[in-house]
Design a protein that fits this description.
The complex is a heterodimer of chains A (407) and B (264). Chain A has 407 residues and is mostly beta strands. Chain A contains three helices and 29 strands. In chain B, 45% of the residues lie in helices and 15% in strands. Classes of the chains: A mainly beta (407), B alpha+beta (264). Chain B: Keywords: Kinase, Transferase.
């Protein structure tokens, strides 16, 4: 890395290449962070996580008993050993909290004054962070599995909601009502995601094994249904094209919006080209997936062979997106993992599971040695002060007429 | 503790060895099979997947089947040799498009595909099927032209001009299997016998591993154990099969490769 820094100074290498190389190196070398922790306040399994996109300071988590917690991630204590403290929470016994489990949480993409949560009590609540009270509540007919608000939408404030009824609802925050119903699925919808490139492109996945792409401005039905065989290998009697051979559990766009990853209960992960809708035919192997609800997973940022972190049973698996090679398995949770998200600025992974833990995975090789040295220097200072008090130091060459002070 | 990826190459520091043409020539002489050398003078070497296919073909015990079966390889066996599954898939599709190999979908699992070299297949069919004109026409037209795993009834009757009687002849000979109301899977004669010994052999190998303490066994120890007589495919064939299908996990130890059953 020092050689690379010298090359950047000389102008041989672009600064972006240095960022890319170091981000890639850190993203590949994740392990459980020994010095940083998140305060253990959860009373039930954690279902959903989100880190705010503006400052990367607050971690919002939603639990299976309806409670919500916000932790502060920034470390101003001066030592690398740090526990992220709870800033505020919504207890499950409050009148305004969700009655059943919270399935999905999201910060408002532009500041931390607002966040949205949705859950199994068929409601979507918009919360004011400063009062920790819901500013608005939307009730639906079906249980809400996931909701998402676009990070780039400047002209609209639409929240896409995927529920257990067959259509996707678009809720407008400015007017306070449901504006659209997107009909196209024949069974309950499990996942929905806005594209990070086009502010009107929405991808949805459902229990009828299909992934549909929508342009919400169009009056007609969906743009495309993604087909896992790309049109071949199908008999003429089967008219429908499915994306997976099981329920579509999770969707994630890459950060440039060019590719879409979909995760299904047929234990497969598929990579799709967003603009042509083709299956890129990348073979990730079999990734065990037995959950019937939405799984949140994430892709690394600014990394050159991009990696995806998949929660699968109790482990988190790391795969290269374009080649499908499995890089590593992160073991740490005691029970199944529900969601993994990457911090927007640092190369850290936060994962939440049914064992009520939120774990931090980071690549901190230098920090651990620096902290160990710091601890050692602390203990040495303490020991040397102790020694002066307890023992009488005998200096054999001392004499009674000369003094220690300098003359 | 799982092996962490090495740090050396993120800044482009370590030099990657690139295969030169002399290495390619060595490969061609070792596997010196005239059929597999490509026509163009620049790519006369085998790709990794082709080399793996040739190796697996050697491992198939033809003598156990007394010539009733050509060498049949499963696609996931190649995954046990070459780590990058996507590149294997792409090369297999390439070879299928060129017509060098043919893929068949066998009905036991969703993704079990079987590979046979086209020449072997043609020999096998001419050997084992009754000499009817419909079958010859099928051999010349359909097998050469349609590279897919299945075919529609409309296509057979319309473009290729096969009558209902022809289609029943083909099904009796074992070349077509019913898929749904209007389409057929391609198949080969004596496919049932292959499937029977394959399934029995796989179950017996998995049972052997499950009976061991901690459900794990060293690979060379497994190779020394005897299989039952009904499993005619040989233990090495099945080892490649279960590693590629991810039913066992390979762990590198100081005494060799350890095969441990995955939980499901």
């Amino acid at each position: 890395m020092i050689q690379c820094l010298e090359n950047v100074r000389a102008g041989i290498v672009e600064p972006r290449a240095l960022i890319r190389a170091e981000s890639t190196k850190r993203s590949y070398n994740l392990h459980l962070c020994k010095h940083r922790d998140i305060e253990n306040v959860h009373t039930a399994g954690v279902n959903a996580l989100d880190v705010d996109a503006m400052e990367g300071k607050y971690l919002l988590s939603g639990s299976a008993d309806g409670s919500l917690h916000i932790h502060d991630l920034h470390n101003f204590t001066g030592s690398p050993h740090f526990t992220s403290k709870l800033v505020c929470e919504v207890d499950r016994n409050l009148q305004t909290a969700h009655r059943y489990s919270v399935e999905c949480v999201q910060w408002y993409p532009f500041d931390t004054g607002l966040f949205t949560t949705s859950g199994m009590d068929k409601q979507l609540k918009i919360w004011d962070t400063n009062c920790m009270k819901p500013a608005d509540t939307f009730s639906f007919e079906g249980r809400v599995f996931q909701h998402h608000m676009s990070h780039i939408a400047t002209r609209n404030c639409l929240v896409a909601v995927a529920t257990s009824v067959n259509h996707i609802l678009l809720v407008d925050l400015k007017s306070g009502s449901c504006t659209h119903e997107l009909r196209g699925h024949t069974s309950s919808t499990l996942a929905c995601r806005w594209s990070p490139r086009e502010e009107y492109l929405l991808a949805t996945g459902s229990c009828d094994n299909k992934v549909l792409l929508w342009d919400v401005r169009a009056a007609k039905c969906c743009l495309k249904s993604l087909d896992q065989h790309n049109g071949k290998g199908r008999s003429s009697s089967e008219a429908t094209s499915t994306a997976h051979d099981g329920y579509v559990n999770g969707l994630c766009f890459t950060h440039d919006g060019l590719f879409l990853l979909s995760y299904g209960t047929d234990h497969r992960l598929r990579l799709w080209n967003t603009f042509s809708g083709n299956n890129e035919m990348v073979n990730y192997g079999k990734i065990p997936n037995d959950t019937k609800k939405c799984m949140q997973f994430d892709i690394t940022i600014k990394c050159d062979p991009q990696l995806v972190y998949m929660p699968s049973d109790g482990n988190i698996l790391m795969y290269e997106i374009q080649t499908g090679i499995k890089v590593n398995t992160l073991l740490g949770h005691y029970n199944s993992v529900n969601s993994c998200i990457c911090h927007p600025f640092y190369h850290e992974l936060y994962s939440a599971g049914n064992d009520r833990n939120v774990l931090i995975w980071a690549a901190d090789y230098c920090q651990s040695t620096a902290f160990d040295e710091h601890l050692e220097s602390q203990t040495q200072k303490k020991e040397s002060s102790k020694r002066r008090g307890l023992f009488v130091q005998r200096n054999v060459t001392a004499d009674t007429w000369s003094s220690d002070e300098e003359c | 503790m799982s092996k962490r990826p090495s740090n050396s190459n993120f800044y482009g520091q370590s030099k990657i060895f690139r295969a030169s043409t002399s290495l390619a020539q060595v490969k061609a002489t070792v596997f010196g099979d005239a059929n597999n050398l490509d026509v163009s003078p620049f790519t006369f070497a085998l790709s990794d997947t082709e080399a793996a296919l040739v190796y697996l073909k050697c491992k198939f015990p033809i003598e156990n089947f007394e010539g009733k079966l050509p060498p049949v390889i499963l696609v996931h066996q190649i995954y046990s040799i070459i780590k990058c599954k996507t590149s294997v898939d792409r090369e297999i599709n390439c070879l299928q498009a060129k017509g060098v190999i043919r893929l068949f979908k066998l009905g036991c699992e969703e993704t079990a595909l079987v590979v046979i070299n086209s020449d072997d297949l043609v020999n096998h069919i001419t050997q084992h099927c009754p000499k009817k004109p419909a079958i010859n026409r099928f051999l010349n037209n359909v097998i050469l032209k349609v590279q897919d795993v299945s075919i529609d009834k409309a296509l057979l009757q319309g473009d290729m001009g096969f009558s209902q009687q022809d289609i029943s002849d083909l099904m009796n000979a074992g070349l077509l299997t019913l898929r749904s109301a209007g389409s057929f899977w391609f198949s080969f004669p004596n496919a049932g016998e292959f499937m029977r010994s394959y399934l029995k052999g796989r179950k017996s190998v998995l049972r052997t591993i499950r009976k061991c303490k901690f459900s794990e066994i060293l690979q060379f120890e497994l190779q020394q154990r005897k299989l039952e007589k009904s499993a005619k495919l040989g233990i090495l064939y099945h080892i490649h099969d279960i590693i590629g299908a991810e039913l066992v996990k390979c762990v590198e130890t100081t005494s060799g490769t350890l095969l441990r059953l995955t939980k499901k």
